[in-house]
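thought: fold this chain, then report.
action: predict
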Amino acid sequence: MKLGIIGLPNVGKSTLFNSLTKSSVEATNYPFTTTESNIGNAAVPDIRLGVLEKMYNSKKVTPATIEFVDIAGLVRGASSGQGLGNKFLTNIRESDALVHVVRCFEDSNVVHVDGDIDPLRDIETIDLELILADLDLVERRITRVAKAIKSDKSLAKEMQLLERLKAMLEEGKLAKGISADEEEALILREMSLLTNKPVLYAANVSEDEINAESPSEYVKAVEDYAKAQGAPMFAVCAQIEAEMAQLEDDEREMFMSELGINESGLDKLIATSYELLGLISFLTAGEKESRAWTIKRGTKAVHAAGKIHSDIERGFIRAETVFYDDLIAAGTYNAAKEKGLVRLEGKEYIIKDGDVILFRFNV
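observation:
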């Protein structure tokens, strides 16, 4: 999974990126500190892997990972050359979803590019710049298709889609609002339009507000906007996350307990993004390695096998499968087998989250 982090300058993007990926990208209180795209990976926390490691005495544990791309902050007029962020938008076009960090904290020491805090204005600024970037891409594609259609009439449907897209974007609407049939949906996916991507809103709050009994007016504004868009949102304190990222596991748990935090920002982000993108994890375990694999919900066993290696997909025989909870309750794989908890599933079996699988295949 690949997530692009967007937002205005000085909203906490780089601080959050550092805490998520344990990186050391410079994060300061003035705009345009980020002058190039930063890419980092974060392991997906999964307590099931630790349990399997002990059960199988695994020599190696490999969690699923998320790739984050942090680009320079966008500002009003980015599409026409203002600021730095617009030229890096191509680096997030291949992202599965966008994490839009919105500033919801007051701090006179941290400059706001527009002078004051207004989450809805900030969101609209970013949306407009994404719309204008997509409009530029669509217009350039229209020019190419207009030339090609003279000798290839099959492009007529694509041209119609592009013209509809152009009209929507010119009206200030996001591409995700367009109605499209199956063939048009394929074209849209191939275009990787920024305004057609799922968005998660991260309301960056102050340390004092992370455990507030009720959300601030800033957070409530983001919450209401996200709800109207059918998008998920969560509150996070990037500063606290940055501090926790420097701690060892036991220290971090103590720190979270003292602050009354039950879930880290990374945990929130992962849970939200998995749900948004329809993702689940299945597990493989053995003496060599215990590992988590991320797949789309609804994936068949044969295709899940291909996630591990194409040879396993081609030579698929069966998937010996046991639910994680059943395996743990039984104590060992052999005990689970004796109790009839291990199932022999074929190519068409739909993988469930937490399935522990041993794939059998012909070489």
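thought: worth noting. Residues 28-34 have pLDDT under 50 and may be disordered.
final: tokens above.
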